[in-house]
Design a protein that fits this description.
transmembrane helix, Growth Hormone, Chain: A, single chain, 404 residues, 2 domains, mainly alpha, transmembrane transporter activity, transmembrane, membrane, Major facilitator superfamily MFS_1
C-alpha cells in the first residue's frame, strides 16, 4: 500500500478507536444475556448457553471467509459491513422474546464479527512497518481492555431502563462505528486481488504458518480459563461473587496500565516469537500454581502471573502472525489464524468445565490446573521448535544465496 505516513497513522488511530468501541459495545450487552434470558425471561440455561456458544463458534469459524473477502475487496468495506450487521444483530436482541429469535440475533452478531475481525487485525498489520507492529498491537490491546472495563459498567447503568435499552444502545454503538469507518483510508490486505480464494490457498499450503496456528491453540485454551475456571475457583476460595470482580478487575487494570510499558521493555531484547513463548510459559506457570493456591490472596497472585503472561503473549502472537503471513494475502492469513481461537478457545471452554467437575467428583483439585499448565508448556515447547526450524531455514537460504 503506497500510503503516506500521516495517512497510515490516521488509519491506525481510527482502527484503535473503533476497536475500543467494539469491545465497549460488545461487553455492554453480552454479559447480561444469560442473566436476562434465564432469570427474567425464564429460558433454560442450556438454551442460552447454546446460543452464546453458537455466536463464538460461527464468528471464529467464519472469520476465514471475512479474511478472504478482505483480500478480494479491501478491508475498509468489510469492516463497515461487519459492524453494521452486528448492529442489526444487537438491535434484534431488544425484541428477541423466543429461543428462535435469540438464536437468530446471536447468529447475526456472529456473522458481523466474522466480517470485521480478520480485516481489522490484518489492517493494523498492513498499516504498520515491522518495527511499529508490536507497539500498535499493544495499544490496540489497551483500547480493548478499556472497552472491557467501560462496557459492563455502561450496561449495568442502562439495565435500570430495561434490557431492550441496553441492546439498542449497543446496536447504536456499532452503528456509530460504521459511520467512523467511512473515514478510514483504503486498507489493502492483499497485493493480488484478482483471484478469490488465492490467499486462502496460500495460507493452507503454508506449513509453518499452519503449525503456528495449531500451536497457538494452546494459548487460547489457557486464555479462556479467565472466563471459566478462574472465576469458579475464585468464588470457591472467597465464597463470594466479589471474587469474579477482583479477577476481572486485576486483569483489565494490568492490561490498561502495563501493556505498553511491558511490551516496549521486552521487545528491546527479544523478538516477537521469543516474547510469545515467554508469555505462554508464564500463563502456564500461573495456571499451574493455582493447584497450590489454598487461599484467595494466593489465587490473586496466580492471576497476576497469568495476566503478565498475557501482556506479553497477546500482542506478540499477532505480530508473529503478521510476520509469518504472506504479504500478498494478509486478510486470508489472519482469517485462518482465527481458527486457533475457534478450536483452542472452544476446547478450553468445554474442557475447563469438564475438568473442574471431574476434579470435584474424584477429589483431585489439582487436576485441572496441572492439565492447563501442561497444555501451555507443550505449546511453548512446540513454538520453540518451530522458531528453531524457521531460523535454520532462513540461515540455509542465506548460505545458498551466498554460494550462487
Amino acid at each position: 500500500m503506497n500510503l503516506s505516513r500521516s495517512t497510515r497513522y490516521r488509519g491506525l488511530i481510527i482502527l484503535i478507536v473503533i476497536n475500543f468501541m467494539m469491545y465497549a459495545g460488545f461487553f455492554m450487552v453480552i454479559p447480561l444475556v444469560s442473566v436476562h434470558y434465564v432469570q427474567t425471561m425464564g429460558f433454560a440455561a442450556v438454551t442460552v448457553g447454546l446460543a452464546l456458544a453458537l455466536r463464538q463458534l460461527v464468528q471464529q469459524g467464519v472469520s476465514v471467509g471475512g479474511g478472504v473477502l478482505s483480500d478480494r475487496f479491501g478491508g475498509r468495506g468489510l469492516i463497515t459491513a461487519g459492524v453494521l450487521v452486528r448492529a442489526v444483530g444487537f438491535a434484534s436482541l431488544a425484541f428477541a422474546d423466543t429461543p428462535l429469535l435469540l438464536f437468530g440475533s446471536m447468529l447475526l452478531s456472529a456473522l458481523g464479527g466474522a466480517l470485521f475481525e480478520a480485516p481489522s487485525r490484518a489492517g493494523i498489520a498492513a498499516l504498520t512497518t515491522e518495527e511499529e507492529r508490536a507497539r500498535a498491537f499493544s495499544i490496540n490491546g489497551v483500547g480493548g481492555g478499556l472497552g472491557m472495563v467501560i462496557g459492563p459498567f455502561l450496561g449495568a447503568l442502562l439495565l435500570d431502563y430495561g434490557f431492550s435499552t441496553v441492546a439498542l444502545a449497543a446496536a447504536a454503538c456499532f452503528a456509530f462505528i460504521g459511520a467512523i469507518t467511512l473515514f478510514l483510508p483504503p486498507i489493502e490486505t492483499a497485493t493480488d486481488r484478482n483471484r478469490l480464494g488465492f490467499g486462502l490457498g496460500l495460507a493452507l499450503r503454508d506449513r509453518p504458518f499452519l503449525a503456528f496456528t495449531a500451536l497457538l491453540m494452546g494459548y487460547w485454551f489457557m486464555w479462556v480459563q479467565l472466563t471459566i475456571s478462574l472465576p469458579l475457583v475464585g468464588e470457591r476460595l472467597a465464597n463470594a461473587a466479589d471474587a469474579v470482580r477482583w479477577i476481572y478487575g486485576i486483569n483489565a487494570g494490568m492490561t490498561v496500565i502495563l501493556q505498553i510499558p511491558v511490551i516496549s521493555l521486552f521487545e528491546r531484547w527479544l523478538r516477537p516469537l521469543s516474547i510469545l513463548i515467554l508469555g505462554i510459559a508464564l500463563m502456564a506457570f500461573g495456571l499451574g500454581m493455582v493447584a497450590l493456591a489454598g487461599s484467595f490472596p494466593l489465587l490473586i497472585g496466580c492471576v497476576i502471573i497469568f495476566t503478565f503472561g498475557t501482556l506479553l503473549a497477546t500482542p506478540a502472537q499477532q505480530s508473529v502472525a503478521a510476520a509469518l503471513a504472506d504479504k500478498r494475502a494478509l486478510g486470508s492469513y489472519f482469517g485462518v489464524n482465527a481458527l486457533a481461537l475457534a478450536v483452542g478457545g472452544g476446547l478450553g471452554n468445554l474442557s475447563g468445565g469438564m475438568l473442574i467437575d471431574l476434579a470435584a467428583a474424584f477429589n483431585l483439585p489439582a487436576l485441572p490446573w496441572l492439565a492447563f499448565a501442561g497444555i501451555g508448556f507443550i505449546s511453548a515447547v512446540g513454538l520453540t521448535i518451530l522458531g528453531n526450524y524457521l531460523q535454520l531455514r532462513s540461515a540455509t537460504a542465506q548460505l545458498v544465496g551466498m554460494h550462487r
